């Protein structure tokens, strides 16, 4: 499946809106064309996680929602150089290279499930994943990225 096909499948399935997957700066500049910045392996992976593994709503960014309950998230998908995480490190003279910066990572929560339960469910269904992934361990959200270059393991857990 090519990138356009996976984007259409995600949009038609109603699983993700592009606003959820990119920071507000990117969406304000590129709108629906922001899909172009997301890694195809990530898109295929989050579709399988949502459709075949978790089978429950996954929540990423909510910056665009007018009725925000709880915390405001805008950097849980693609992060541009203006995003606070990137900008703050750059201003301190630190190098900031993250899978979020090149559209290869998302952070999310799943309705009614703890982050640890979601990670365990993904691990127990790793045979369904189309690509190797990394997941952040011991955090209260789920981080998935496609920076797993260790082809020996389908999933690598790492600590922040």
Description:
With 160 residues, the chain is α+β, with helices and mostly antiparallel strands. It has one domain (3-64, 71-158): Muramoyl-pentapeptide Carboxypeptidase, domain 2, CATH 3.30.1380.10. It has six helices and five strands. A five-stranded mixed sheet has the order 1-2-4-3-5. Helix 1 (3-13) packs parallel to helix 4 (40-54). The mean pLDDT is 90.
At CATH level 2, the architecture is 2-Layer Sandwich
User: What's the arrangement of strands in the largest beta sheet?
Assistant: 1-2-4-3-5
**What share of the residues lie within helices?**
25-40%
End-to-end span in angstroms? Answer: 33 Å
Task: Estimate the strand proportion.
Answer: 5-15%
Count of DSSP E strands?
A: 5
Which CATH C-level class is it?
A: Alpha Beta
Radius of gyration: 15 Å
Outline the biggest β-sheet.
5 strands, mixed
N to C succession of SSEs: HHHHEHEHEEE
- Which class of secondary structure composition applies to the elements? alpha+beta
Tell me, briefly, the overall form. globular
Q: Flag low-confidence runs.
A: none
**What is the helix tally?**
6
What is the CATH topology classification name?
Answer: Muramoyl-pentapeptide Carboxypeptidase, domain 2
Number of domains: 1
Mean pLDDT: 90
Primary descriptors:
160 residues; five-stranded mixed sheet; Muramoyl-pentapeptide Carboxypeptidase, domain 2; 34% helix
Put the structure in a nutshell.
The chain starts with a helix and ends with a strand. It has a single domain, classed as 2-Layer Sandwich (Muramoyl-pentapeptide Carboxypeptidase, domain 2), CATH 3.30.1380.10. It contains six helices and five strands.
């Amino acid at each position: 499946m090519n990138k356009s096909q996976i984007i259409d499948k995600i949009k038609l399935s109603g699983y993700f809106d592009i606003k959820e997957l990119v920071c507000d700066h990117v969406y304000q500049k590129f709108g629906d064309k922001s899909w172009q910045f997301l890694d195809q392996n990530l898109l295929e992976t989050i579709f399988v996680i949502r459709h075949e593994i978790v089978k429950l709503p996954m929540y990423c960014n909510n910056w665009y929602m007018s009725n925000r309950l709880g915390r405001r998230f805008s950097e849980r998908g693609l992060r541009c150089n203006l995003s606070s995480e990137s900008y703050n490190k750059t201003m301190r003279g630190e190098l900031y290279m993250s899978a979020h910066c090149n559209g290869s990572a998302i952070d999310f929560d799943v309705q009614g499930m703890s982050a640890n339960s979601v990670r365990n469910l993904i691990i127990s269904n790793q045979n369904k994943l189309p690509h190797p992934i990394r997941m952040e361990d011991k955090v209260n959200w789920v981080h998935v990225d496609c920076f797993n270059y260790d082809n020996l393991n389908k999933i690598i857990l790492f600590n922040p």
